[in-house]
Design goal:
By secondary structure, this protein is mainly α. The chain has helices at about 35-60, 65-70, 75-105, 105-130, 130-165, 170-190, 195-220, 240-265, 270-300, 305-325, 325-335, 335-355, 360-375, 375-385, 390-420, 420-425, 430-440, 460-465, 480-485, 490-535. The N and C termini lie far apart (about 70 Å). Residues about 1-25, about 225-250 and about 450-490 have low confidence and may be disordered.
């Protein structure tokens, strides 16, 4: 592996603790006493990175009016600029899964940091020099950075949740919401103080680089308790004989190919695709509120811009409260029940907002809408992260559904708002909420195989994958054990692959045997002919 991740001490050197299964998540192993400090450090560092993502996401959106005025952009041109960022995220999200699967979360975070710093600086330089092209490149790179950063952060949040043995992913998304509010405040303050856009964006880029690189070492856990063993041990170079080393090298190459295939295989998993639909509905609900709620309040109730901004703050605040306090709901009632209840509450709040005759009643609907929209994305991310081996590819798939929602929703809702008004146009996303309720059963925990195999906790996930091939083709001796450790949903596919390979091997053996028989017969006939010719002479 060209980018080895620093290895750390094992998370637990004591015998494996019994598995615990919270109603809302997959089976996990409680951390040992000596692991608590490292786990708490990783959790808070990851919380900080989520908050930082919220700051970088919203601080530039708060300066959009200044960017528009500096470049004299029309509304359509500004919409096209925002669309460029969504395209950057969409074309990168699948590659982000492959990067994390192949190199690990650290490399994904570093690559995202590089793209973010360059993109943010260009977004400031573009308005300063009057170049729309520079701004477009910066917005595109910012979208690339968002996609590259979201996948490793969400993968690591799933690993922290498995290590802690209880639901914590919503708290990370609450940190993002808090960071978004903070970033909006910073942008508003910079606008009030007439801080040039290039100065603000350069400062934010420098802050992001320093913060992310300082968090890099401790934010990625070693194999967490609850992570199933994902590879067979490979003999150390110093003790393996030449034949073993020769066999390991092709296995490592096949392992790299298999990890890329694993990331892409997630696109053929029905459960993952349906979870992606749930994520898309949640992203559509949350994103539509962020884009259109304040405008809908201003136009629908003839109120000032300040009132519209306050109502958006009510929505974000309701989401943040539920994300901070709603983890116990998931642990108590399970993912499926919470997702269904969230969809119903969100739909009811949306209908009340869209049909209410007064702003006061509509505000109650906004609170319900925010309450219902809070936990859908965290629940979907947790469901996609159940299997540690496939979490990167699956998170990338469901994130691409969210990117599609952010790409398609603004122009479609804008067209609808032209004919029926923004407040009534928002009612159209109720269809997506109904779909989320109907598909809620798909987020049920994916149970691992009960093998009792020890967790290889002494090495980072991507380091383990770099040294051994999870594909049975590269390690035939380990085929049986690896099949036993696969999730229950993956076993039929593995058995089919094994049967196909066995049939191919038998067919090849039969062809070779037939060829040998024909060769023997031909040789015998040739010898008999030679003997007869000699006797005749």
């Amino acid at each position: 592996m060209s980018h080895p991740a620093p290895t750390g001490q094992p998370l637990s050197s004591a015998p494996s603790a019994p598995l615990t299964t919270p109603p809302g998540g997959a089976p996990t192993t409680p951390p040992a006493h000596g692991d608590g400090r490292r786990l708490a450090r990783a959790r808070w560092l990851l919380m900080g990175l989520f908050a930082l993502t919220g700051v970088t996401f919203s601080s530039w959106l708060a300066r959009i009016p200044a960017v528009r005025d500096a470049l004299d952009l029309s509304t359509a041109e500004l919409g096209g600029m925002l669309l460029v960022g969504s395209l950057g995220a969409l074309v990168t999200v699948t590659a982000a899964g492959i990067v994390v699967q192949r190199f690990g979360s650290r490399v994904g975070i570093v690559a995202s940091t590089v793209a973010l710093s360059i993109g943010y600086v260009l977004m400031g330089v573009g308005p300063a020099v009057g170049s729309v092209a520079v701004l477009a490149v910066g917005i595109f790179l910012n979208g690339v950075a968002v996609a590259l950063g979201n996948v490793p952060l969400n993968v690591e949040s799933g690993r922290v949740e498995r290590a802690m043995g209880r639901t914590v992913i919503p708290q990370f998304h609450a940190a993002f919401s808090i960071g978004a509010v903070t970033g909006s405040g910073l942008g508003a303050a910079a606008a009030a103080l007439d801080v040039p856009v290039v100065v603000q964006f350069s400062a934010v880029a420098a802050l992001a680089v320093v913060w992310r690189l300082a968090s890099l070492r401790g934010v990625v856990l070693d194999d967490a308790p609850g992570d199933r063993r994902r590879s067979q041990p490979v003999p150390a170079t110093g003790t393996a004989d030449a034949g073993s080393r020769a066999a390991v090298v092709p296995g490592a190459r096949a392992g790299r190919r298999r990890r890329i295939a694993t990331a892409l295989d997630s696109w053929r998993e029905p459960r993952t695709l349906l979870i992606g639909v749930v994520i898309m509905a949640a992203a559509l609900s949350e994103g539509s509120a962020n884009d259109w709620l304040s405008l809908a309040v201003v136009d629908g109730f003839d109120r000032s811009e300040a009132v519209g901004g306050a109502m958006l703050g009510v929505f974000v605040g309701a989401m943040t409260v539920v994300r901070l306090l709603g983890t116990r709901l998931i642990d108590s009632f399970g993912r499926v029940a919470v997702l269904r209840a969230s969809g119903v509450v969100s739909l009811g709040g949306l209908l009340l907002f869209g049909l209410a005759p007064t702003l006061e009643l509509a505000a109650v609907g906004i609170v319900g809408w925010g309450f219902g929209a809070a936990l859908a994305v965290p629940v979907g991310i947790a469901a996609a992260s159940d299997d540690p081996l496939r979490s990167a590819g699956r998170v990338a798939v469901v994130s691409s559904f969210a990117s599609v929602a952010s790409l398609a929703a603004p122009p479609l809702l804008g067209l609808a708002a032209e004919s029926m008004g923004a407040r009534h146009a928002l009612l159209l996303i109720g269809v997506a909420m109904v779909a989320s309720v109907l598909l809620a059963a798909r987020v049920a925990p994916e149970q691992p195989a009960a093998t009792g195999a020890p967790v290889d906790a002494g090495r980072p996930e991507h380091a383990v994958l770099a040294d051994a091939d999870p594909d049975p083709l590269a390690a035939l001796a380990a085929h049986g054990a690896e099949q036993a450790e696969q999730p229950a949903l993956a076993r039929p596919h593995a058995r089919r692959r094994h049967r196909v390979r066995a049939r191919a091997a038998r067919a090849g053996a039969a062809v070779r045997a037939r060829a040998t028989t024909l060769h023997v017969r031909a040789t015998g006939r040739a010898r008999a002919t030679t003997s007869r010719n000699g006797h005749d002479r």
